[in-house]
């Protein structure tokens, strides 16, 4: 699972759509076998989107919203009511169709610290956002040397990333990439690292509001600091599924 190495500390309320997931893995005897951390994005007062690999069967997920500076400093906490993995997601193909939708048991209270992000419009379906400067945000480890347990006590950080052209990404990563991958690279070398998979990648829309274009999925390589680019799941490739399940309005 991934986070921001480098970047800057977020200001209060800067990312009101950012959610944190504390994921408890259940052991064979039914007890907790470990705790993981993921990010998520608020789509409405009832729905979140995250990475499918954060939501494996048998895991308990706690949702934190309006958090600053750490995830546990949450304005609101919520319980998951329904978790839907993309029907084509498979653990045997890391990163492919790596999306999950979470329906909360109860609607959250929307305010200046808890507010949904905008989805791309239908007219953006063919847009790959290549060359655009995007923003990635999340909690978690800030270096490969950071050995502290993942408990949601890190400070929320963000980084500016450039969305790579497909040919450029394939040349850097030395592999063919599917069209639903969206690869990004930090403007100053920032990369994702352990603790932030499932979090948002946004761009600034024409009216200045943030628009969700990717969900942090994975990187190639074991060390964050050596990763040359990282992969997000491209939201425009999955708009029909997201809209059909959540009923969140999508502009034409």
UniProtKB/TrEMBL annotation:
Short name of any one Pfam family annotated for the protein: Trypsin
Coiled coil: none
Any one GO biological process: proteolysis
Domain Peptidase S1: 4-247
Keyword Nucleotide-binding: no
Cross-referenced SMART domains: Tryp_SPc (SM00020)
GO molecular function, one term: serine-type endopeptidase activity
Record InterPro entries: Peptidase_S1_PA (IPR009003), Peptidase_S1_PA_chymotrypsin (IPR043504), Peptidase_S1A (IPR001314), Trypsin_dom (IPR001254), TRYPSIN_HIS (IPR018114)
The entry's keywords: Disulfide bond
Protein name: Anionic trypsin-1-like
Organism name: Thrips palmi
């Amino acid at each position: 699972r991934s986070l921001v190495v480098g970047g800057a500390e977020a200001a209060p309320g800067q990312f009101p759509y950012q959610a944190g997931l504390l994921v408890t893995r259940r052991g064979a005897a039914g007890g907790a076998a470990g705790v993981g951390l993921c990010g998520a994005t608020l789509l409405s007062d009832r729905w979140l989107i995250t990475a499918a690999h954060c939501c494996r069967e048998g895991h308990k997920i706690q949702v934190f919203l309006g958090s600053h500076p750490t995830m546990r400093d949450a304005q609101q906490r919520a319980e998951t009511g329904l978790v839907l993995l993309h029907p084509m997601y498979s653990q045997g193909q890391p990163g492919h169709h790596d999306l999950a939708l979470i329906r909360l048991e109860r609607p959250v209270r929307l305010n200046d610290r808890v507010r949904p992000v905008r989805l791309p419009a239908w007219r953006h379906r063919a847009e790959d956002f290549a060359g655009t400067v995007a923003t990635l945000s999340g909690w978690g480890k800030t270096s490969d040397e950071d050995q502290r347990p993942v408990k949601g006590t890190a400070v929320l950080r963000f980084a500016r990333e450039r969305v790579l052209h497909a040919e450029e990404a394939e040349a850097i990563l030395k592999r063919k990439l599917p069209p639903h991958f969206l690869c990004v690279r930090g403007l100053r070398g920032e990369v994702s690292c352990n603790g932030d998979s499932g979090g948002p990648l946004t761009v600034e829309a024409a009216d200045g509001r943030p628009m969700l274009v990717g969900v942090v999925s994975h990187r190639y390589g074991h060390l964050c600091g050596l990763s040359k680019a990282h992969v997000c799941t491209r939201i425009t490739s999955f708009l029909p599924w997201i809209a059909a399940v959540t009923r969140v309005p999508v502009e034409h």
